[in-house]
Amino acid sequence: MSEQLQKLQAELLQNLQTVGETSASSSEENGRLDVLTRIEKVIQKIVHTISQGEAPVLQLSTRCSWSNMRFDKSVGILMSLNPKVTTLRSDCPSAINRFALFLKVLSMIYRLVQTDSYATKRDMYYNDPQLFGTQRNLDLIVDDISCMLQVPRRSLHVLATSKGFISGDLCYLEADGTRVECHSSSMAVPVSSNVSEITNIVSSAKFILIVEKDATFQRLLDDEFCTRLHPCIIITGKGVPDVNSRLMVRKLWDTLHIPVFALVDADPHGIEIMCVYKYGSMSMAFEAYSLTTPTIMWLGLLPSDIEKFGVQDALIPFTKRDESKLMSLKRRPYISAQPAWEREVGILMKCRKKAEIQSLASIAPHFLTRVYLPNKLRYGGWI
Fold first, then answer.
1. Which of the residues are catalytic?
2. How many Å apart are CA 165 and CA 47, to the nearest integer?
3. Average of pLDDT values for 111-139?
4. Alpha-carbon gap, residue 228 to 75, rounded angstroms
């Protein structure tokens, strides 16, 4: 392992000892009995309201407004201590259908927890697709229920199908006892759909590399990146990461305590995807403690690398959507909290052009895996 990687790992371990680890375990798994009790209290309140001759309502925290969020650099984006709420009324014609769906999903979750069984969101949707209308309707309700009850979604016994892939120096046991080997140099393993139940994680990896795009991930596999320089683990959420990919990154950090790097496009959307892994998102802020990995370092592609490596000919002009996204990013607290990141965002704002990771191939076909990444890791080219 390079001297710079050793120094980084020592710093990370020192920080853990100094400030204490804020791991997913700090937000303890809610037991089945506790979850059942919380659901029963919601139903009891509805029954009591009806017995008083009033229309029952549900109070839901607003999960799509920055005014309802707070930022903690050691954790990420969190719900405000006193968040604004939206009232879902049963006597409002425009809301009564959603109110009924909430109760339907709540009853399905109660049955799952009570019988200690699990279902995917897809399974739940196909239980009555005409009733739910779209998969998204069900997904939003499940997340709102998780937020309302203040329990992680996995404590509701609701799983999501994973879209991410992982490869490298890693093996572990799934909940059903299946042993998963991720060592293949040419094949990747789907990220588990039940990350919280993974056990017996074994790895001699020196670092974890989060890769934004599946195409780049496949290039790293084809070039045997996981074994060529140092043993490592690579993972991709194939764009905006799903919850399972984020849970897996956090689980690996909590278990292995090795450096975690991000490799994303030098554009506003790549930066935002990296920030979702590192600091979380508004919609899932209520689960920040188990979904964020604040130790993530930005390895590349840095906007400052564009001129350094002479790939200006491969630059793509910003679209209006890019400009809007960049302005939104600049206002977010986690960018201003990191001066080095803020400088890189400033470079993008000045040049109004973006570069994809694949632009490095214009220098040489294997430049990414045999020159760019090895030098970055050897000489500490991360921020």
1. 126
2. 45
3. 93
4. 33
